Amino acid sequence: MSEVTLIAGTAGWKLQPVAVRNTYPEFIQKVYFTAELFTSKVTDWELYLVTTNPLDAASHTAYIELSYQRSDELIARQFPLILISENAIAVQEAVLYRYKYKVHEQAQAFFADGMQLRLSKRAKTIRFNYIQPLFESNENLKGGQVEYALLPDYGLLSIGDFMRKLSFLEDDEWLTFCADPNYIYNKVSACGDVRINSSGVAGE
Asked: CA-CA distance, 118 to 108, in Å (whole number)?
């Protein structure tokens, strides 16, 4: 598929309100959601990080890693995140800390190049489900979770809901993701209660 064809088809889809788009069969929704993502601008992406511990000064040092597979090589680059807002949320007897980030424009060229390689079948798709806020030290982030608004029109999505909207993920890619410690945040919404044992991945 050419980039021009993809952009033209997606433009017509986006003219419809999200409420109308959500009435289509699931497979059509997934195809067009993915097409919107492929033609999006990284500067429109929003990531919300919810943690049980405050990040303090480290909140300004967040970055993401964009990556895709080309032949046997994983091509990866890191790009800064821009902190937009932060606030504390009282939940029952606990306090959670919520940080809103946007992606720096530096990432656009790498993303565009990766998508062009994907559309010309010279590389696999950008690993969207591995996009996450990262820091020099990630030790205090276990138990945290990421809410995705890479396409803000669709609202906030858990990692599981986000992945279920992607048309290109195969079953083996889900299993790989669920067993992969490189995604450091809570992924119960995608994987259930996952345990890694000698015979593979088990979950509920």
From this structure: 15
